[in-house]
Design goal:
Helix content: 55-70%
Number of strands: 4
Mean pLDDT: 77
Structural class: mainly alpha
Low-confidence stretches: 10-21, 27-39
Number of helices: 8
């Protein structure tokens, strides 16, 4: 599958006892192509940026979130209007509190939409590693699925905030969401699976088996 970030593989080294050359000279690497000596393959910066995004999980969450948002659109709009009106009078508007209260009053089958929104947020986050494990195959390096799981689980909250998740609506700010998402995206591309794997190896029972 192409959804898992590929990590660089070490290049085999010549046997100096047989070849009569230095033992650290990698096979298949010319003298004029040593910028990546010692490793081969692996996804580049832009590939990592794209693959670390839990796109399918985000798509599911956007669909569910849109249903919940439609159910609370009018009450939330009224709560925002009332909060702004209070602020114009010199009184604290408490916008987050009023928005949360408005969402909490709406129910689906007797369950508060506020509660449902948090359940869906947690379910989507929990399903991220399950999905990524299911799309990894034997062609993926051993550590790559683990790297995707770590990075995608870190990325999901940023995406949830950016798409205006109902659970996070009381604290949502469009400009801040854009800045946070852009910053995380920029940084994520610089993080190679090898780096994450090195950290996972420090945790007993989690790092890939050798």
């Amino acid at each position: 599958m192409g959804r898992i970030v590929r990590s660089a593989e070490p290049v085999p080294k010549r046997d100096s006892t047989l070849e009569g050359i230095p033992g650290d000279a990698p096979l298949g690497v010319d003298d004029d192509k040593k910028e990546d000596q010692g490793s081969k393959g692996g996804d580049g910066y832009l590939d990592r940026v794209a693959k670390y995004v839990p796109a399918e999980v985000v798509a599911f969450f956007i669909f569910v979130n849109s249903i919940l948002v439609n159910a609370t659109e009018q009450p939330v709009a009224k709560a925002l209007t009332d909060a702004v009106a209070e602020e114009t009078k010199g009184n604290p508007g408490d916008i987050p509190g009023k928005v949360q209260a408005a969402i909490y009053k709406i129910e689906m089958a007797g369950i508060s939409v506020w509660t449902i929104s948090w359940i869906m947020l947690i379910v989507a986050l929990a399903m991220t590693p399950v999905y990524l494990k299911s799309v990894s195959d034997s062609a993926d390096n051993a550590e790559a699925p683990g790297a995707n799981i770590v990075m995608s689980m870190l990325a999901f909250p940023f995406w949830a905030y950016a798409v205006n998740a109902l659970a996070l609506r009381p604290w949502h700010d469009g400009a801040l969401a854009s800045i946070m998402l852009a910053t995380f995206t920029l940084i994520s591309g610089a993080i190679r699976p090898e780096y994450i794997n090195a950290g996972l190896n420090l945790i007993p029972g989690i790092g890939p088996k050798k």
